[in-house]
Amino acid sequence: MKYVFTFLIYLFIFWIARLIYLDINIMYRFRPPAKGNQPYLKLINQRDQLNFKVEESYSLSNETSIGRSARNDIVLQDPFISSEHARIILGEGTYFLEDLKSKNGTYMNGSKMTGPMPLRNGDRISFGLVEFLFVSDQK
Predict the structure, then answer these.
(1) Residue 75 in contact with residue 68, Cβ under 8 Å?
(2) Is the C or the N end of the chain the one with fewer CB within 10 Å?
(3) DSSP strand E in the chain: where?
């Protein structure tokens, strides 16, 4: 009986250590990209609810393409996203989001886009099932 009790205590300690490890691992996954003050897209969805691979955040360059095709800078295997769905372009110090005539459209802050729109810190961007938050410390 004492062996069973000892085994249960070790099992409990192992379970607690595993939970601590998972919590620490999650903290590091939610860190923003380590590229200074460069704007990025932060995933709002929970990754485990999507049936395709998606990162927690994506850094933005002067021109960032988004779509299902491997030629894009941000590849999202969502069946509701076009192969070349949208792009984000830096122009005159401001990032602009442009839908590339995708079949299901691109949404910003809940409204379907009809043309290029400037992005501001905190804007919500939706492509198919995926929703991102635009994060920038630029004014």
Answers:
(1) yes
(2) N
(3) 40-43, 57-59, 63-67, 74-75, 86-91, 94-99, 106-108, 111-112, 117-118, 124-127, 130-135
Domain containing residue 100: 40-135
pTM of the model: 0.69
**Section 51-56 average pLDDT:** 78
Q: Does residue 20 sit in the same domain as residue 72?
A: no
Q: 44 and 23, same structural domain?
A: no
Cα Rg, the chain, nearest whole Å: 20
Is residue 113 within 8 Å of residue 97, measured between CB atoms? yes
Number of domains in the chain: 2
Phi-psi region of 111 (alpha: psi -120 to 50; beta: other; left: phi over 0): beta
